[in-house]
Design brief:
Layout (H helix, E strand, L loop, with lengths): L1 H22 L11 E7 L6 H4 L9 H7 L1 E3 L2 E2 L7 H10 L3 H4 L5 E4 L4 E4 L8 E2 L19 H8 L6 E5 L2 H8 L5 E6 L4 E5 L8 H8 L2 H8 L52 H16 L9 E7 L1 H9 L4 H25 L4 E7 L7 H6 L5 E2 L2 H16 L5 E5 L2 E4 L1 H7 L3 H12 L5 E6 L10 H10 L8 E5 L3 E2 L12 H4 L3 E5 L5 E3 L3 E2 L3 H9 L19
Helix pairs in contact: 4-7, 10-12, 11-12, 14-16
The structure holds zinc ion.
């Protein structure tokens, strides 16, 4: 009997193998799409797909939702959900603990200086007179990206281009071996790059910059797409916590943009015009770089930065946020329509995701009796410094604070014979009295923390021994820092739950509620493209979406 069952099992296994083998063609060339277009929306929460659904057009988000694959329970897998870490994680299939992009900024204890995620003093601006704007490269990212792997796999025949208003949104997705990355210089209104990529801008970009689109868009101001009374998903327009476009005294539509404070063209980033510029650049690159027209698969990585500025300034429940998403939907529709015309509907692979979500405005939650608040970071810092001085005497024991972390002055600790544990105990005792502080962690001994396993994993995935501080403040859910309307950077669902939509070549129609993580994006792309995943990859292939 035992042998019969064994024989039947073997027969069943063989049958499976044979039927699988029948379904997979192993003749002819490896099949790949002509082009991959990756879109990261800066600060797009998952619920925006549905909150504004009825007002979206047929050709944008609705088209991808209807014809593509939707990972509906897709989350960040680390605690400090910010732009640079998000873009790096999407494209590397990794986590800050390995790819090293632990924040937008961090402190380097060895060099004793603050580091910007894509800062590179050996690089120079190409394309404008603004020397600071172009000192950028991806060299701080410690692993390869999916875009690097595509370049490697094709022996550098694949073309990879990154585009975003924010330098980090263009540079990190495009990887180390990119043909180009372009970002916006808000002082001159030019799209620029750095000497890391090229000695000069391509002619098409010189011509596009010469058209002075930013000046034309500023003169248009910002009016709502629909009549104001149609924005029924949002609060009324005038809220005290919303940002002002100075010198204007109120934050209400319609907005005049000419003559506002700040860089000449900086205001565009905080309006839908920033997305318009990004879309135009993507279409320019598509056209003039002949993306998808060569023998090898090309990759266009686009990041829309403006929703982040608008979300911070006005909050996710504002008319301004709703308006920027209704307009972004049209931009996405235009990009898809152009790809259809240029490459054919079934010849490109498209995905859309986000670098983080955002918390609702704390004041808005309080107004509706929900638990929320603003932590007093300035007072916390001064209380911590005072407590350390009274315990350990004079001398600055904290070298820097960033990402809700304290970086300790290790040479001074050593000189005074003070342990990290002793400093941690004083800081923890001081901070636990503050409203909005849930916990204080000694990151060097995270395994000892009293966090639950889920949260502990999020902080562990964030911790990089050389780039993280030693002491971490964990804020309560609903609590935020900063003098802005809304913020992100927390391990809570409003910041971690984001969209992941795949569409087009090789992608099934459907959806899953299985929990997927952001580091699954790159290995799924690698599987679709039949190339090696990035070297720091720790995610898994979202098997359900692959159409074989
Ligand atoms: Zn942000």
């Amino acid at each position: 009997m035992k042998y019969i069952r064994f024989a039947l099992t073997i027969a069943a296994l063989l049958c499976n193998v044979l039927s699988d083998a029948k379904n997979i063609e192993h003749t002819g060339a490896v099949k790949r799409p002509k082009l991959v277009v990756g879109v990261v929306v800066d600060q797009m929460r998952y619920d925006y797909l549905y909150r504004f659904y009825d007002k979206y057009s047929q050709g944008g988000f609705k088209r991808i939702l209807g014809e593509g694959f939707n990972c509906r329970n897709h989350h960040y897998h680390y605690a400090l959900t910010v732009t640079a870490a998000g873009h790096a994680s999407v494209y590397t299939g990794s986590a800050p603990s390995v790819h090293g992009i632990v924040g937008n900024d961090w402190f380097d204890s060895h060099l004793n200086k603050r580091i910007y995620c894509v800062g590179d003093s050996s690089a120079a601006t190409v394309g404008s007179s603004n020397a600071a704007a172009g000192r950028m490269s991806p060299k701080n990212m410690l692993v390869s990206t999916i875009t690097d792997q595509l370049r490697l796999a094709s022996n550098f025949q694949s073309k990879v281009i990154g585009i975003a208003l924010k330098d980090r949104g263009a540079i990190l997705p495009a990887g180390h071996t990119a043909n180009a990355a372009y970002w916006f210089d808000s002082k001159t209104g030019n799209w620029i790059t750095s000497s890391f990529y090229a000695r000069q801008l391509p002619e098409w970009l010189v011509n596009y910059n010469a058209r002075k689109r930013p000046a034309a868009l500023i003169s248009q101001g910002w009016k709502t797409l629909l009549p104001l009374e149609h924005y029924t998903e949002s609060t009324s327009d005038n809220q005290a916590y919303e940002a002002k476009f100075l010198p204007a005294k109120k934050s209400v539509f319609p907005y005049e943009l000419a003559g506002t404070a700040g860089d000449a063209y900086g205001i565009l980033s905080s309006t839908p015009h920033g997305n318009t510029l990004t879309k135009e650049m993507a279409l320019q690159a598509l056209e003039h770089e002949s993306l998808g027209m060569g023998a090898a698969t090309d990759f266009l990585a686009v990041s829309f930065s403006s929703p982040d500025y608008v979300g911070h300034g006005f909050g996710p429940n504002s008319v301004e946020a709703e308006d920027i998403y209704l307009r972004l939907d049209k931009d996405i529709a235009e990009i898809l329509a152009r790809l259809d015309r240029k490459l054919g509907k079934d010849n490109y692979l498209f995905f859309l995701t986000a670098d983080h979500g955002v918390m609702d405005v704390a004041d808005f939650w309080k107004e509706h009796k929900l638990p929320a608040g603003r932590i007093d970071y300035t007072r916390m810092n001064s209380d911590v410094r005072n407590a350390l001085k009274s315990k350990f005497g004079e001398g600055e024991l904290i070298a820097a604070s960033e990402n809700f972390q304290y970086y300790l002055n290790e040479p001074l600790l050593e000189q005074k014979g003070i342990t990290t544990e002793a400093v941690f105990k004083v800081i923890r005792k001081t901070l636990m009295h503050f409203d909005g502080v849930a916990n204080v962690l000694n990151l060097n001994e995270l395994y000892k923390s009293d966090l639950n396993e889920y949260q502990s994993t999020l902080y562990r995935n964030n911790f990089h021994l050389k780039r993280s501080g030693q002491i971490q403040i964990v804020v309560e859910p609903g609590w935020m820092a900063g003098p802005i309307a809304a913020n992100h950077g927390s391990p809570y669902n409003n910041d971690t739950h984001i969209p992941l939509l795949f569409y087009g070549w090789g992608v099934k129609r459907g959806e899953t509620f299985r929990r997927t993580a952001v580091w699954d994006t790159a290995p799924t792309l690698a599987a679709l493209l039949s190339i090696l995943e990035p070297n720091g990859n720790m995610g898994e292939v979202v098997v359900e979406l692959i159409d074989r």
